[in-house]
Amino acid sequence: MTETESIAYDVVVLGAGPVGENVADRTRVAGLSTAIVESELVGGECSYWACMPSKALLRPVIARADARRVPGLAHLAQGALDAPAVLAHRDYEVSDWKDDGQVAWVEGIGADLYRGLGRLAGPRTVTVTGPDGEQHVLTARHAVAVCTGSRALLPDLPGLSEVNPWTSREATSAKAAPGRLIVVGGGVVAVEMATAWQALGSQVTVLVRGKGLLSRMEPFAGELVAEALTEAGADVRIGTSVESVRREGGTLVVVTDAGDRLEADEILFATGRAPRTEDIGLETVGLKPGSWLSVDDTLRVTDSEWLYAIGDVNHRALLTHQGKYQARIAGAAIAARAAGVPLLETDRWGAHSATADHAAVPQVVFTDPEAAAVGLSLAEAEEAGHRVRAVDIDLSRVAGAGLYADGYRGRGRMVVDLDSEILLGVTFVGPGVGELIHSASIAIAGEVPINRLWHAVPSYPTISEVWLRLLEAYRG
Length: 476
Description:
GO terms for molecular function: oxidoreductase activity. The protein is α/β, with parallel strands linked by helices.
């Protein structure tokens, strides 16, 4: 039996991942009635198939690598990882793919949860088709927020649909390590999953079509990660494309553009993302289904008064933490407009402006070594027309690095705007550097001048002393 119900809310949120949850939290705190719609697990991609499971797989890998570099401890870290224990802990971190805890959190903030496929049905209207076919019609007085995220994008390759390739979801949820794994791609998912599964017992081959790994970071980041993967036993092939893929019996066969024939048990394609907007009713409000949604700095869709697109769907920065930041900005903007605030704070670094999307997007790649960056690379800064200077430091020169790991290898770079003498970008590569990048984010977001940073004294002996070495190199 199908039942139709029409309910009015102040805000309707499509997607209950971390981004949608944060929008709902911010609008509820502001006193707005909020409904949140989810077709899969409450908690979204990050909780079950991305951030949480991937880091659960990678943490033992990094810990063992660090221990191997510590005198007096190295001999205890030479054996293989206990793969079943690692996978069991991964399952624990994703709550065995059950979302009871996340549902309780949504209910705890006072938002109403609707399970099912939510689709726009004209301005300010969302229809929800539940798992049993029941229908609900939700109307939004102030805003509909699209927070549906992105999905893996598979290339159009002969034979691909017949071999059941892995995407990021299968790579983070697999129940056992395949004997041989081919990873296609050179971005974050590719290098993290290559790192994890190589350490868990797979023989990994990485095929990178471009000039190197992690192409959106400084070139040295990808170079150091490629070196480490190779030393760990992976076969990293740069400038190599896949021409075809097929299965012969139980064996997967890949042919490259060089004519090489490679055999494996599984193949992971980490070759891009597409917005999950193909079936949410965009056509009913004059937008193209399956498209990325263009927004202003309050995260409101261009030329709309009520539709917001937050997180991956706006294609600004496909990162959970950046989507949650956008959600806080959007939530504040929605609440202000609902309250009739005549003029929002949309100036640079204003309360209703997602300025960090343009100036201070941080990212950590949890490989061995870690790669972390925020802001612009040298090439991006030059392309944007800034007059800049890059300052590089070998992290082995930092006293804290030598204490952190025997034979520490790493590199740091800061990109300085010579006209304003503030930082435009910072990149660190090396063991443990993920914990350094927030200090760089603060320096960039705060537009802290170099002469003021000189007085931010790093504790000795920590790897953070890299800041002193960078500043000394800049000042000469």
